């Protein structure tokens, strides 16, 4: 029998949080089909929204025989969720009839339109959403003797909130809040309270390290052993971001990702591999133009189906993300059998095609984070050159210790590295430190000006 988590009777620390992490692939596929079938039957019976939507597309539950038959179901778009909440406020189709009472409300950022409200019952929050989250913190090595600081303001953003609750309620760690603390206050309290685990967006945790350095503090001396990032692409998608975090803090960096509408999708193990929560969500990677499945391991748009949650199941939800792919045949040294998730490349609209070459914003960021003369502040934009051709312009701030006389050398180095990585020329501009915006939560570095 596989032992997981921490035994309440012996206190023994086991390697895996859930048996699903090492389930044989054949059993996992059977579990996915059983849960998908149950979910579809449940929604056909309980949800007027899905019954009408599916019926209009010629689908009924009898057509679902295999996992591949999920393609008979239409996609769910975020705009449909927004419209349903306008027609039937406040939750629309995100509240199944009879579900409640609610203990937590999530809300999307609203960057692409009116924010979507996401209600959670206790069962769905702690039993499903936090189940997806706790695997990420457990795989990172966080245990009940750790002191965790989750560096974000308390908003309805669910990603870091679920990590917070997973550490406190499921792992049993001491978790230190600090929603309105300044960066200097965070640094003082990290040292004073003996924080061993730091969580936040990669942008903010890198910014926090810079604040420390600017004030004569070496972040690596503060005692942080583990860094967990979420909310935007981190080391799982941009390896050089993970490297910068580890170098700055002298800690091991881990990364997790997901959608507020569905669940935590993937997280990094101790081997640096991203693993999918395949028993909780079913992920498809499709060609953005044809909607057909790509070959295993290839890049495409991510579509996610919630296999377990019952308050607001999202079936074939179009996340709007382009991902590096999913490798089902990957054999990881950690012993987990869950598929390898190859990270995010950008949003569907963020993939820029230049003379036949697809350039991802995550790829640009990985190049910049690998150049030591570049600071963590930069931005990139898509432009039209006036002849009907797209081009990319990259603006960077150099490190503070780079003399202004050397900025043009930095510009040339960045341009050369980008050209070598993508085989296309990009405009590069070096701007003085302090010119570009500083982000404490999700960074908005890409601007489409076409």
Describe the model.
The protein has ten helices and 21 strands. With 450 residues, it is an alpha/beta fold. The protein has two domains: 1-348, Rossmann fold, CATH 3.40.50; 352-448, GMP Synthetase, Chain A, domain 3, CATH 3.30.300. The strands form six sheets. The chain has a seven-stranded mixed β-sheet with strand order 4-3-5-6-7-8-9. The chain has a four-stranded antiparallel β-sheet with strand order 10-11-12-15. Strands 20-19-18-21 form a four-stranded mixed β-sheet. The longest helix has 22 residues, at 25-46. Residues 108-304 form the AMP-dependent synthetase/ligase domain. GO terms for molecular function: phenylacetate-CoA ligase activity. Pfam families: AMP-binding (PF00501), AMP-binding_C_2 (PF14535). This is Phenylacetate-coenzyme A ligase.
CATH superfamily of the largest domain: ANL, N-terminal domain
- DSSP helix fraction: 25-40%
Spatial gap, N to C terminus: 58 Å
Uncertain residue ranges: 7-12
Q: Which class of the largest domain in CATH terms?
A: Alpha Beta
Find the structural class using helix and strand composition.
alpha/beta
CATH domain topology of the largest domain:
Rossmann fold
Question: How many domains, as an integer?
Answer: 2
């Amino acid at each position: 029998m596989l032992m997981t988590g921490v035994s309440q009777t012996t206190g023994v620390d086991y390697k895996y949080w859930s048996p699903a992490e090492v389930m044989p692939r054949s059993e996992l596929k059977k579990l996915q089909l059983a849960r998908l079938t149950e979910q579809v039957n449940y929604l056909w019976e309980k949800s007027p929204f899905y019954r009408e939507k599916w019926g209009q597309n010629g689908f009924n539950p009898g057509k679902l025989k295999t996992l591949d038959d999920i393609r008979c179901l239409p996609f769910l778009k975020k705009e449909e969720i927004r419209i349903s909440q306008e027609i039937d406020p406040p939750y629309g189709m995100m509240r199944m009839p009879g579900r409640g009472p609610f203990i937590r409300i999530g809300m999307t950022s609203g960057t692409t339109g009116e924010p979507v409200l996401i209600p959670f019952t206790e069962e769905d929050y702690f039993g499903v959403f936090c189940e997806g989250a706790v695997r990420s913190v457990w795989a990172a090595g966080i245990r009940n003797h750790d002191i965790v600081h989750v560096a974000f303001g308390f908003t309805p953003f669910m990603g870091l909130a679920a990590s917070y609750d997973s550490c406190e309620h499921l792992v049993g760690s001491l978790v230190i809040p600090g929603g309105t603390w300044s960066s200097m206050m965070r640094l003082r309290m990290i040292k004073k309270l003996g924080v061993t685990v730091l969580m936040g967006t990669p942008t903010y945790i890198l910014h926090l390290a810079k604040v420390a350095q600017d004030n004569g503090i070496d972040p690596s001396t503060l005692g942080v052993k583990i860094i967990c990032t979420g909310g935007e692409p981190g080391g799982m998608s941009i390896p050089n971001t993970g490297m910068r975090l580890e170098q700055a803090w002298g800690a091991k960096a881990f990364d997790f990702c997901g959608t507020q509408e569905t669940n935590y999708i993937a997280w990094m193990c101790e081997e640096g591999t991203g693993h999918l929560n395949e028993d909780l969500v079913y992920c498809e990677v499709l060609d953005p133009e044809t909607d057909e499945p790509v070959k295993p391991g290839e890049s495409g748009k991510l579509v996610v189906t919630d296999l377990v949650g019952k308050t607001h199941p999202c079936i074939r939800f179009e996340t709007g993300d382009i991902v590096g792919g999913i490798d089902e045949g990957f054999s990881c040294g950690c012993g987990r059998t869950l598929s390898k998730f190859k990270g995010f490349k950008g949003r569907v609209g963020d993939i820029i095609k230049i003379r036949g070459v697809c350039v991802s914003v995550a790829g640009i960021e990985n190049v910049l984070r690998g150049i030591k003369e570049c600071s963590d502040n930069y931005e990139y934009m898509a432009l039209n050159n006036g002849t009907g051709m797209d081009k990319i312009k990259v603006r960077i701030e150099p490190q503070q210790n780079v003399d202004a006389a050397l900025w043009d050398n930095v510009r040339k180095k960045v341009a050369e590295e980008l050209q070598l990585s993508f085989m296309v020329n990009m405009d590069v501009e070096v701007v003085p430190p302090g010119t570009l915006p500083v982000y404490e939560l999700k960074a908005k570095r890409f601007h489409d000006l076409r």
